[in-house]
Amino acid sequence: MRSMRLCANPIHRLIQRSIFKMKAYFQAILEGIQSIRKGMALTWKHAWAARKQRSIQNIQDPDYFNQQAGIVTLQYPQQQMIPPVNGRYQLHNEMDDCIVCDKCVKVCPVDCIEIDPIKATGLVGTTSDGSPIRLYAAKFDIDMSKCCFCGLCTTVCPTECLTMTSEYDFSVFDVKEHNFEFANLTPEQAAEKRALYEQFVAEKDALKEAAKEAVKTEAPAESNEAANPTPASKPAFKPSFKPSFKPKPKPDAE
Ligand code: SF4
Ligand code: SF4
Predict the structure, then answer these.
(1) Its pTM surpasses 0.70
(2) Range of the domain at 14
(3) What's 71's DSSP letter?
(4) How far is the CA of 132 from the centre of ligand 1 (A)?
């Protein structure tokens, strides 16, 4: 507060004090009005600009930051943001192109991919890039509630069947619904394929055993033959080649 010179007369002093207080009071009101005017100018500026909506653009659009005025809030879900092309959102596996190689499972840092492979007895098919498929997937689950969207699984996938889509809104009421299943075998088909492979392995083992037995039974006979060689076991007669030199006929003397 500014200092003031007060009169010696008490009545004058009282009047002087009152005038000073009134001045300070109206000064404060004036400052308040100026402050409100400044603030409201900014508010009215934005309110005026909000008469129109900014166009929805991809953040990678070169004009994205040139839109300085307009409403920025989207009326979701009627209006939706355009996700960038390299955005990482919900995973999708194109099972027809999956060779069930397990690489995505191994690279995932949070173990959110689960695969149950079943070996096939032969070639199951080929992918769109010509890679042979030799395994079935009885289970191919991706738990998106655990996924940290690092994208490593899509990077290692040799057939590029595992991709991150532009689907960013997959909110659910039950977190278990974030487990996405991609396996294309029913439990019955999986059991059938498993049984087929087990039968195939059993038949192969039986054939191997039979071959081993055959070798064992042949081996003593051969050792007997080696101990008591029979004429039949003698080496067959080999004709020897003896070149004959015939003198060349002399040309007739003329
Ligand atoms: S994006 Fe990362 S965390 Fe998600 S499934 Fe793939 S590897 Fe796992
Ligand atoms: S890396 Fe690709 S091909 Fe291999 S199992 Fe995963 S999704 Fe299938």
Answers:
(1) no
(2) 1-42
(3) B
(4) 25
